[in-house]
Design goal:
single chain; alpha/beta; three-stranded mixed beta sheet; 6 helices; 35% helix
């Protein structure tokens, strides 16, 4: 973490273009992370016209009332697949920008739902998922009906490509986290 440095991670082609153009315009240094797994994972309309997406503003992708799922990058598609397989009345927030964090959007959702899951492809230890979970618990503890659950990669060295699918979060692990947080 370096103050003044902005960190961006799009979840699809539309966001990638808008966030990249905003990053170029921004006077501060910006690290722009592109999850390679989304390159050809799906198709999305991207306007030819010039547009930007504000840095530091999360996107409420889906509205619900029983659970908040916070995610970013390639994990947004995983969360959407999970909710298609097992419908749940959940807010889904795509952070888009990891520094600065839009905790206002997250906390507004938590105050409505009372439950949170953070889904990230990074390892559990020393992760943004842990930072976001801690901030939710610090700033919204009186609104939580359950502990914040994290779904991340395992705390082991990243495996070769053939084993990647066993290392990264998957639908089954997200479903288990939803069941756990809803059991409180």
């Amino acid at each position: 973490h370096c103050q003044g440095l902005k960190v961006v991670m799009p979840s699809g082609p539309y966001d990638a273009k808008g966030l990249l153009l905003a990053s170029i315009e921004d006077p501060d240094p910006v690290m722009f992370f592109e999850p390679k797994s989304i390159y050809r994972a799906f198709k999305e309309e991207v306007p030819e016209d010039y547009y930007t997406i504000p840095l530091g503003k999360a996107n409420l992708v889906r509205e619900g009332s029983k659970l908040t799922i916070v995610t970013w990058g390639a994990m947004l598609r995983l969360v959407q697949q999970t909710l298609e397989a097992n419908p749940m009345d959940a807010d889904v927030i795509d952070m888009r920008t990891l520094a600065p964090l839009d905790m206002e959007t997250v906390l507004t959702s938590i105050k409505k739902t009372g439950r949170a899951i953070v889904v990230s492809e990074e390892t559990r230890a020393g992760s943004m998922a842990g930072d976001i979970a801690a901030r939710i618990q610090e700033d919204a503890i009186m609104h939580l009906d359950a502990p914040v659950i994290r779904v991340t990669s395992f705390d082991i060295p990243f495996p070769q490509f053939a084993l990647e699918k066993y290392h990264l979060p998957n639908v089954k692990r997200v479903q288990a986290a939803i069941a756990k947080v809803m059991s409180y």
